[in-house]
Every structure is written in C-alpha cells, then in structure tokens.
Specification:
Bound molecules: zinc ion
Largest sheet: 7 strands, mixed
Radius of gyration: 21 Å
Strand content: 15-25%
Order of helices and strands: EEEEEHHEHEHEHEHEHEHHHHHEEE
Number of strands: 14
Number of helices: 12
Helix content: 25-40%
C-alpha cells in the first residue's frame, strides 16, 4: 500500500515571498511533506483534495518565509544577570535545558532558522542532537559551537581559547570535528569582564589562518568586531561576515570610518549589526529615571547605553544607504529570547524600507549563513519554513509581531 505524502494547502490574503517581488494577492501555497511545491494566486492553481490534504485558510493573513536570526547565544537568556553570573552559576546541563527553552521561544515567534554564535563546551551540539531525535522542538540550528578566542579573550569561558597560527588552525579543525557549521571568531574584546571592546584581538596572521582553515573545510566565518581596528583586521583576513560593526575607537568614542565601510561593501562582507542589544536595558533605566533619580552608577550606564544605541542605529542606516552594505538581522539574544521583531523595527527606524527589512531577516539572511538554497524564500523546491502574520508588514513593520502561524519544514508549530 502506498501512502500519499501529507499535503498542506495554505491560503492567505497575500504572499510576500522575500525575493523582492511584489506580493501575490489571494495566494495559495502547496506544501508536500516538508517541501513547497507551488505558490500561485488562488484560481490559477489546482488545489489538491482528499483525506491526506489539510487546508489552512488565513483570509486576512500575510504569508512570509520563516525568519532567520543570524546571531544568538542560547546558553544565556537570563535577564538582569551578567555573563559571569551565568557562567559561574550554571552547569552545562542547566544551560542545555535553558537553550532548549530559548530555542522553542524563538521558534514560536517565527524564527525558523537560528545561527548560534557562541556557547560553552558541547551544549549546542547536544541541543541539535536532541532536536534531531525529537526530544525537543527547535528552529533549524546553524552552530559555531564554541567561538575561537585568544587566551583570556571575549567568551574565553566557552573553552575554545587558541593562540598563534598553529594553535588557531588546530582549534578550527577541532570545532569542525565536533560539529561546527561555521566558525565564530572573537576579533576584539567585548562585554566580558576582562576584555576591552576598544582593542582588537588576534593578529591578522592568526585571523587569516582561521579563515583559511575554515574555508578549506567549506565553512563560513564570522567575526565579532567592536573595535575599529578589529574591523580592519577582519577585512584583511577575508572573513565572510562581521558581527556588531561597532566602530569603537581606542578612546571609546564611536566613529564610522568611511574607508572601512567602503571595503566592507567592496568585499561583499555581510554585516549583522545586532542593533537591539542594550535597547531593552536602556528602556528599563529610562523607566526608572522617570520615577526618581538614578544612582551615579546607573546614570553612567544609561549614558553609555544611549551612546551605543544611537550610534548603532545611525551606523546601520549609513552602512545601508551610503555604502550599500548587506545588512542582516541578528538579535545577539543574551537577555531575552522571543523579542526578535524589535531588531526589525529598529532596522526600519534606521532607514531600511519594510521590504528590505523583510529580506534582511529572511532571504538575504539565509544566503549570508549559507542556507539560501534551502530556506528564506517562498518558491517551489524550498523547505516549508513559513510564518503568517495578521497585518500587512509592508504597511507597518510592527505587523511582524502578530504571528498567527509558524511552520518549520512542513510541521505546524503554532
Ligand atoms: Zn554575540
């Protein structure tokens, strides 16, 4: 007896396929198993019928590809706690449980593909194995495992410190052996206690060795770059993506350097500016300030967050408009999971059109992490990673929060 594949017909007011084409009005998408078979206007397509066909009808809904979050840290997600409090306080087992919860929370808000940019030991590899076995439900996971960092560098407690050309080469080989899909490089300090975000880490020779070794094994690279010098070093080394693009000068000021931005565009390097980091913390402090005076330490923190948030938004807009850099959405989720759409709203505020924001969070993001042939657009042959929102995101980007359906590989999640 042959069993017909399960067919799902999804009808929607419009399909925004994220190729940049105009929306298809009154559309139907036919999904067979996990694969999109057809997308057309209703009436121009034969709608399959029979007991194996399930119809999902969203007469007021807008159907889009599932979102891609190009930058997360699944072991965190503990609001109000510092990196060190989490790292010192929690075992790998607790981190794994939290990672599973965070992954599901993100999936339920529409993130069907998630690129993980740094976790301790083998926590995320175990999460992926658990998802493969069906123990947990998670987005499609693209993992770096542990980030490569110099001794005492940003995220050193993930336990992949490596120094020198030979040291970093063997670290990359170890990571690929353990299951890394891409290599995350800490090219400057960051928010960890003993590092300095104004200064570059690693020599260009070390960075080149990492990139060379990763590319030799068919893996993409991405570099955390807050310090301006780290951007230059990462470009010299030929990385594929830059995280944050902080443009922080040695004196701590923020200054977008046009010659560097031109190089990013020329070399076709994607930038994931993670604009939302610090934004919610700033909101909390601003709310507190409206109730009464802040302590001097809180005041200093608020000033720092204001400068950071403002420069990030300004740099995002300029990188996009003035320099034509490919911008990608990434939450850098550390405090909160499931707050994905905030970053999209900020990208629109920074000057990107709503369609450009949609592409930066779906098709272009998928390309940037090497899965553009699999997900990120709604076309026949692609995996059925889909979301339905109940208002028009081309009119108002906040509509992307109104998720009413999420499907991953043909499986309806909500
Ligand atoms: Zn990060």
């Amino acid at each position: 007896m042959s069993t017909a594949p399960t067919v799902t017909v999804i009808k929607a007011k419009a399909v925004i396929d994220a190729t940049g084409a105009k929306p298809i009005e009154n559309a139907a998408v036919i999904v067979e198993g996990s694969i999109i078979k057809a997308v057309e206007r209703q009436g121009q397509i034969a709608i399959p019928e029979g007991p194996h066909v399930r119809v999902l009808d969203y007469p007021t809904g807008y159907l889009l590809p599932g979102f891609v979050d190009a930058h997360t840290h699944l072991i965190f997600g503990v609001q109000g706690a510092s990196y060190e409090e989490v790292i010192d306080g929690d075992s790998d087992e607790i981190m794994l449980l939290r990672a599973a919860k965070n992954a599901l929370t993100h999936l339920q808000c529409g993130v069907t593909t998630l690129r993980e940019n740094g976790a301790r030991n083998s926590v995320t590899f175990n999460l992926r194995e658990g998802a493969r076995r069906g123990y947990v439900t998670a987005p499609r996971l693209m993992l770096c495992g542990r980030p490569v960092t110099q001794t005492g560098g940003h995220f050193y407690w993930c336990n992949q410190e490596a120094d020198g050309v030979e040291g970093v080469r063997s670290a990359v080989r170890q990571l690929v052996k353990d299951g890394s899909d891409h290599i995350k490089i800490m090219a400057s300090g960051g928010g960890t206690a003993i590092t300095d975000n104004r200064r570059a880490s690693y020599s260009v020779e070390e960075l080149r060795a990492i990139v060379d070794e990763a590319h030799n094994m068919g893996k993409l690279t991405t570099a955390h770059c807050l310090a301006t010098q780290s951007l230059i070093n990462a470009l010299d080394a030929g990385v594929d993506m830059i995280e944050h693009a902080g443009f922080i000068e040695p004196d701590g000021s923020y200054k977008l350097e046009p010659t560097i931005a031109e190089r990013i565009a020329e070399q076709g390097v994607y930038v994931s500016p993670t604009v939302q980091t610090g934004y919610r913390q700033r909101e909390v402090l601003l709310a507190r300030q409206s109730e009464g005076p802040l302590t001097p330490a809180e005041q200093k923190r608020l000033e720092g967050l204001k400068a950071k948030c403002e420069s990030q938004l300004d740099f995002l807009g300029r990188m996009w408009k003035e320099f034509g850099i490919q911008i990608i959405s990434g939450t850098d989720a550390i405090a909160i999971f499931g707050d994905y759409c905030l970053g999209l709203e900020l990208m629109a505020e920074g000057g990107m059109s709503n369609m450009d924001v949609i592409k930066a969070s779906t098709s272009v993001a998928a390309q940037s992490i090497g899965v553009g042939g699999l997900v990120g657009t709604i076309k026949p042959g692609m995996e059925a990673d889909l979301v339905v929102v109940d208002q028009d995101p081309l009119q108002d980007i906040r509509a992307l929060r109104s998720t009413t359906m999420v499907m991953r590989a043909g499986e309806q999640i909500i």
